[in-house]
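FAQ: What does a multi-protein file look like?

Like this. Sequence, then tokens, then the next protein.
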Amino acid sequence: MPSRLVLYGRPDCHLCDQARAGLRKLLADGLAFELEEVNIESDDSLHSRFLERIPVIELDGEIVSELWLDVDGLRARIDTLSA
């Protein structure tokens, strides 16, 4: 079963757009994970929790990246989980 990856962000966030593009590239390159995007503006508690940290990337319930996408680190973690 592929890992579940959640991207917390909001509209008009260039860092979120960059992270989204990087995640989609990883998917296109064959890395196996299910991507869910969550708009933090849809929930007051998420907004207050993540506003200064977005994009926030959570892998199987654990935050693995904030403010930018660590492509190599994320690839290594997913490879380790799927081994």
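And here is the next protein:
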Amino acid sequence: MEDDVSRIGRMPVIIPDGVQVEIQDQDVHVKGPKGELKRSFRPEMILKIEEGVLTVDRPSDAPKMRALHGLTRSLINNMVVGVSDGFQKVLQVEGVGYRPELEDADLILHVGFSHSVRVQPEERIEFEVDTKARLITIKGIDKEQVGRIAADIRKIRPPEPYKGKGIRYQGEYVRRKAGKAGKVMT
């Protein structure tokens, strides 16, 4: 059993054409066609670039180092994928009268409140709305930021278990409850 090396940590990060990666001390700067990202990593991790491939090594097999090994590699890979391809999350709006719209760059949600909810995009984030299918697409280069914004929008009106109304991730299964009519009297 090969338990001494992290399976994710040992995988190399292949740097595609058009993406530049610079390492200064423990700061990694990734620049690509969609933008640029910068992040600092723990000084214990050993980062090397050779022939368009970035590798991450760790100094010891201590549990903390093993955890940091895989995490560091995953974060760097997400940065490379983000600046080359980008990330997106799709939300679905369910419910009678519930609808999303786009006004300039702002997302406006009509989800059963007495007022509409306006969500302004953060820097490097873009919203797209399909009004017929009631889909909201959140696009960006930072995977963490895209996921957090999608979760924040879902929190505005999470799907409820009785009628299934609300905002959910596309493909998310919402477990339904029977309600009062489903109760059997004996």
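Q: Is there any per-entry metadata?
A: Some entries carry free-text notes. For the entry above: The chain has two domains: 7-84, 87-169.
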